[in-house]
Amino acid sequence: MTGEIKKLASETVLYGLGTILPRTLNFLLVPLQTRVFRQEDYGDIAELFGYVAFFNMIFLFGMETAYFRFSNKPGHEANHIFRITQTVVIFISVVLSGLFLVFYGAIADAFSITNKNTIIWIALTLLVDAVVAIPFAKLRQQKKAVKFTSIKLINVALLIGFNLYFLLLSKNPVPGIELVFLANLLANLSYLIFFFKDLISWRPLFDKTVSPQILSYSYPIVLTGLAGTTNEMFSRIAMDNWLPKDFYPGKSSGYVQGVFAACYRFSVFMSLIVMAFRFAAEPFFFSKSSDKNSPTLFAKVNHIFILVACTIMVGICLNLDWLKYFVDSGYWEGLNIVPVLLLGYIFLGIYYNISIWFKVTDKTHYGTIITLFGAALTIGLNFWLIPAYGIMGSSIVTLTCYFGMTAMCYIIGQRFYPVPYTVGKDLIVIATTCLVVFVNSKITITNIAFSIGLRGVASLIMVWIVYSLTFKKDILHT
Fold first, then answer.
1. pTM for the whole thing?
2. Residue 175, helix vs strand vs coil
3. What angle do CA 62, 65, 69 make, to 5 degrees?
4. Averaged over 286-312, what is the pLDDT?
5. Domain residue limits, the chain
6. Residue range 213-222, pLDDT digits in tens
7. Residue predicted with more confidence, 75 or 110
8. Is the dihedral of CA 209, 210, 211, 213 positive or negative?
9. Non-local CB neighbours of 171 within 8 Å, separated by 6+ positions
10. Burial 43-81 (b: 16+ CB within 10 A, else e)
11. What confidence score (pLDDT) does residue 124 get?
12. Cα–Cα distance list, 301 to 296, 305, 352, 359 (Å)
């Protein structure tokens, strides 16, 4: 079992390089964009990316997870499943992108977008991302993490380069937000080059037996993804409509939305850990699901994730004194939401881990029910808490939603696929993390250099304690 966990850990590191490092480099665009754009404009960018994430779920139609599930089933050939899932994705994405392109002017007017080309860039980006999604899943299935990472790194290098050109080096004196989306499109077009062989050799396929099974399996995943995206993105959109006028004196809701979006970006570090772990763990879980020892293995994997995630949360929160310089000082007033969002993403990661039960038992409709419950919490609580507490209220909603989904998933899952999760130990780790972060927030050190040094050392000590007293003892020597 130890060897399997170590293998998962190494794959997570590789996928982390392909997700965390590129997104961390992408995070370096935040200082540029928050200095180029006003808070209101930056809020518009965040809102549009929220809609992009929503439509991305529809374009993919749950085919990534379906590909992993059916290509691991006995009697199914991986390339056969690849062709079927790719056919579904391409059909849906071509139709929807075509509609975007036909009605781009009306859509731009509906969202009060000045430069209507923005909708064209978004539609084409959605199309490109959808077309390469299954080829990326194929790399994960074949455990080609190095190739996966290399492609992602090249893409982000291009993204940074295009952003620097459009926002700094071009002769446009007042860059518009459409340039951010154009940079995204141009960078993502590189994917077509890397997957040219897969795309050119693909032939449409609809299997009368397997295709209906895949669609039946995937449509609850689509609903789950849409509800999940609502959980993640709705707060940013609701801020513009539900924040009372002059809640923050002299500042518009658009301004506040921009501050919220910029500070939300600090939670990207945790969301990337979740993403990297998910990229490695999803095919791993499917491949081990038939093993009689898999429940114990899954419990240990979840415990590892919690240890790592909590350590990262402490490291970020203790070092906000200097991390805050990654955004313009005009956005600092919202930094108090960062610990709440980080904790929320820890529970989201736990949810992804324990949700494997409804995927390996083909009960994906439970995932839809759980995520719809989360979406209802998100919408209802935002309606209540944004007018009362502003951006902090919305951050609390994120935490509450992901905690509620995790608890519900655990309770139902233990009925159908019992896993001996170390709930008590895990809750102690999370509670201790919260205590450390709370105590740190009450300590003020005026000397910035001393503060950075002291808290940096404290972060390293935390890493050492977790590794030496818990991680090394409980996992590596199992």
1. 0.71
2. coil
3. 130
4. 80
5. 2-476
6. 888 888 877 8
7. 110
8. positive
9. none
10. bbbbbbbbebbbbbbbbbbbbbbbbbbbbbeeebeeeeb
11. 96
12. 9, 6, 12, 17
